[in-house]
Design brief:
- The protein contains seven helices and 20 strands.
- The N terminus and C terminus are likely disordered.
- By secondary structure, the protein is α+β, with helices and mostly antiparallel strands.
- It starts with a helix and ends with a helix.
């Protein structure tokens, strides 16, 4: 009998545990849907979910209580730690506790004049930013000399935080916004002096040579600055290279650009739309018969991209003409902070050193290498093409 008793106690204890866990799960299994964005959570009936379209913030709160959490669902090109550290730097938060907890980082401290608990949590490809709120503490009129220093954080117990976390763990869907992080940069410098500030992020690579800046990340952002293309007319005696009649700039982007990309790296570009940016006609100056800035939507690497594009065209001789372009691009719906970083790359691009040493030689060669009616040796053609590459970067 005495030996059976511990087993009986263990069985009863296990049964009670299962019952309690089942009850707790039942209390949680009340699905709630936010009407605007379709986000769903499982929460006790006393909790409500709301959304602020102006800020992108979700609020999960308990009725007639100060207990609540604000949730922002975002994407960040930075790591979890970099994103949290960037928030601390940009917000000026005074952090008293920095707690790394598995797939999340919890910050405790003061944001402005208010106490704050903020969690950064990785959820697949998304990153959740959660701020917890509890009952505000009343200020004491006088502080006793030997009294314990009051806690800096809102009156939110560990159990309340766990409850809010448990609710948020059931989250499905919701509106995702790019987090306003600061992209770290580094100076890229080629052997010819070509330079620019480029994003310093994992998975990104760049090249600087002959006055050209090119590179990026195949799923996050692309930059190509200062790209010249020698275009042969369709009736040209050259049987290779990019071919097209002299066309307007939108047509050049739609037809010449895909040929140029396919020839250089075998990639497939399909242009979906080209729209002129008002007030940019003649952007590249009088050296071009036509130039301007455009917004371009295209497909590449299985993604749809939006680009800011500068395009210019100039006749060369009876057999060929020059098409020049620079652009930056991000995937449709991609990070605005990446786009801003690439704009910064464009604005800091300096190829003056490459131009100064090559311009005169290129001009002389171009002016003296017209051979009407006769084919040009392929080696000579390639040399002329390279000199055009040098000349165009003025």
């Amino acid at each position: 009998m005495l030996k059976v008793l511990p087993r009986l106690v263990f069985t009863v204890f296990t049964s009670l545990s299962i019952l309690l866990l089942t009850s707790a799960h039942t209390a949680f299994a009340v699905p709630q849907t936010e009407e605007v964005t379709g986000l769903t959570i499982d929460a006790p009936k006393k909790f409500l979910v709301g959304y602020d379209d102006a800020t992108g913030l979700y609020t999960i709160r308990k009725k007639k209580s100060k207990t609540r959490a604000e949730l922002l669902i975002g994407t960040s090109p930075l790591t979890l730690q970099q994103t949290a550290d960037d928030f601390i730097s940009s917000s000026g938060m005074k952090v008293k506790k920095y707690l790394e907890q598995g797939d999340s980082i919890l910050l405790k401290g003061k944001l402005g004049k208010k106490s704050a608990q903020i969690r950064f949590k990785q959820s697949g490809s998304e990153l959740e930013v959660i701020r917890y709120y509890g009952k505000k503490k009343k200020k004491k009129k006088k502080k006793k000399r030997n009294s314990r220093r009051s806690t800096l954080y809102p009156r939110l117990t560990a159990a309340q935080v766990r409850l809010l976390d448990r609710i948020l763990a059931t989250r499905q869907g919701g509106r995702i916004v790019p987090l306003p992080v600061t992209i770290p940069t580094q100076t890229l410098r080629g052997t010819d002096g070509t330079s620019a500030l480029v994003p310093n992020l994992p998975g990104w690579s760049f090249d600087a040579r002959d006055g050209i800046i090119s590179g990026g990340n195949p799923t996050q952002g692309i930059v190509n600055l200062g790209i010249p293309t020698l275009v042969n007319y369709t009736g040209s005696f050259f049987n290779y290279g990019v071919k097209s009649d002299f066309v307007d700039l939108p047509t050049a982007i739609a037809n010449v650009w895909p040929q140029q990309v396919a020839r250089l790296n075998g990639g497939t570009i399909r242009v979906l739309g080209v729209q002129a940016v008002p007030g940019t006609t003649g952007w590249l100056g009088s050296s071009y018969a036509a130039s301007g800035m455009f917004t371009v939507r295209f497909t590449f690497n299985g993604l749809t991209w939006d680009a800011l594009f500068v395009s210019g065209a100039a006749p060369i001789d009876f057999d060929s003409w020059l098409w020049y372009h620079s652009y930056i691009a991000v995937p449709v719906g991609g990070s605005q902070v990446i786009a801003n970083a690439l704009v910064n790359t464009w604005s800091t691009w300096d190829n003056s050193a490459a131009n100064a040493t090559r311009l005169q030689n290129a001009l002389n060669t171009i002016l003296t290498t017209v051979v009407p009616g006769n084919p040009i040796d392929s080696d000579v053609f390639d040399a002329i093409h390279q000199q055009w590459v040098d000349y165009i970067k003025q």
